[in-house]
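[job 0412] stage=complex_fold ligand=1-deoxy-D-xylulose-5-phosphate status=START
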Amino acid sequence: MGLLDRIKDPRDLRALSGDELESLAAEIRDRLVATCASNGGHLGPNLGVVELTIAAHRVFDSPRDPIVFDTGHQAYVHKMLTGRHDFSRLKQAGGLSGYPSRAESEHDWVENSHASTALSYADGMAKAFAVRGERDRTVVAFIGDGALTGGMAWEALNNIAGGPQTGPGRRPLVIVVNDNGRSYSPTVGGLAAHLSGLRTDPRYEQTLEVVKRTLGRTALVGPPLYEALHGVKKGLKDMFAPQGMFEDLGLKYIGPIDGHDRAQVEQALTQAKRFRGPVLVHCLTQKGYGYDPAIRDEADQMHSPRPFDPATGAPAGAPVREWTDVFSETIVRAGRSRPDVVAVTAAMLGPTGLEPFARAFPDRCFDVGIAEQHAATSAAGMAAMGLHPVVAVYATFLNRAFDQVLMDCALHKAGVTFVLDRAGVTGNDGPSHNGMWDLSILQVVPGLRLAAPRDGAQLAEQFTEALDVDDAPTVVRFPKGAVGPDVPALERLGTVDVLARAEAKDVLLVAVGAMGQVGVDTAKRLDAQGVGVTVVDPRWVKPLDDVLVDLARQHRLVVTIEDNGRVGGVGSVLAQKLRDAGVTVPVRDHGLPQRFVDHAKRDEILADAGLTAQNLAREVSGLVAALDSAPHDRATTV
Ligand SMILES: Cc1ncc(C[n+]2csc(CCOP(=O)(O)OP(=O)(O)O)c2C)c(N)n1
Ligand SMILES: CC(=O)[C@@H](O)[C@H](O)COP(=O)(O)O
Ligand SMILES: [Mg+2]
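[job 0412] stage=complex_fold status=DONE, emitting structure tokens
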């Protein structure tokens, strides 16, 4: 048994020698590579925080001293050191979550994988300790340089720095900035440039080394004097790099230190702990540290690879054509014919497929950092000046910019197109990553138009249609992963495509977006049972085309299926539309349960939600049978 398997509790770390701790770090890295090679996972970020996490658990007393992780994708090491060793089913149903999980451990606090929230949690926790008089507890917040580009982080810093810095009201809070210079790609913006300036000024480091070496040789006087010279060190830094930003805010700043030198990190964290107030420790790390294929991966240093060959880092299995690839090609074509089209990403140029556009049109692609709110409103500004911006984000992250979409875009009738990748069930990334909200929350935005393509051809067509709307925000949403074969239409009625029809008009089945093929398969099963089904794809689900009202009138039952939560989804909007039109045909809407859906494969979650052709056919045939057996003079609810 190795050292790692002997660590049942973080306190076990304190008995290890320096050499043992080095060996432990190596074991952890081996396990990270093996785990992510077979499961996929956030390899790069976790390789970069091995020493930081070991040091934090040696200096602080988790869970009494809460350790919160921003975004949480870099918490695998924390899990290994808090007694969780079975990573064999990471991010799979029944296995460990890919993020902190309070159900898994008392050492976990923040489960939400949306970035830039950790400092706000930490500020609240620290205030709670102060209010309760628990002054011996310290909150520790890990935040990456990327997450620091999110606005919430600065709202928190403003409050943390504004708290009492001395006296009994002080709130012990240690902010560990894990500065590896990258989100996926290199972190952008003035803050990143500032941090980078500090990281890369050799004069600062050399001078500091001389001071440290000289003082270190005089045991009695050296270290205390070195501490006393901290002001000199700060002065040095100010002289070499304007690092006063955090201190000008009122935050004590320690660093920058080598985040892979565990002893140095422990020393800095111990110093920070002693301060008993808010302190920022700036740690320089490398994403992917200790695994060459990750370090050499220029794109994103193996930020979240799918399964790969551990010997080379090369992806396992053949590449498949994904929805993202279709969008990526389509926006480049649009860019060629539409000089007004520009692209905006929130630190996810690669994952959202915008890299080819950025290469083709470097002056028309903008990375704003992890700042979806700013992305939306700056896009409204671009539209006001005659451009047509395309803001590409993962669906779940658009939640963060709801007010900006509502007030800064829709109220101003701004022709901004939002492309929502990873819409619907994403699966293995857990509850805060499923894009199961957009079809609900965007329904309330006056004037906004929302498209849900069923296949690659429709994605290209509907995206092009969206670019032609310049007096309202438009949205095109599609799921994660491989895009299936195109689902042909028999005819188009208004904006609605008819995908299947039958002699008997028993059921109108409205299949939203990527559920199109499921709708067609369901109809085939029902046809075999003598139930006549018309399958339609609305294509634009906001506003819904009035032709759906006419179609509903012609059938005995309306069934909707969508890859979104049921509450406020397309099914409920269609039911309202039919009620408003005085159509009394019964409606049964199928979607995801309105709860937080734990990590599992996409297909497993869809099956659990009953969103399979087999289950839908069984349910619908039961409903039709109920209609057949009901007395004809009574309206039937289904
Ligand atoms: C609101 C939000 N937008 C986008 C993302 C996607 N995302 C996950 S990790 C990441 C980069 C984080 O960079 P950093 O904070 O520096 O951590 P690192 O991966 O470098 O350790 C991004 C953009 C997210 N999780 N949350
Ligand atoms: C933590 C985070 O938000 C991203 O890293 C996300 O997990 C990546 O998801 P995909 O793997 O679907 O691109
Ligand atoms: Mg980073």
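Residues 218-222, 235-242 have pLDDT under 50 and may be disordered.
[job 0412] exit 0
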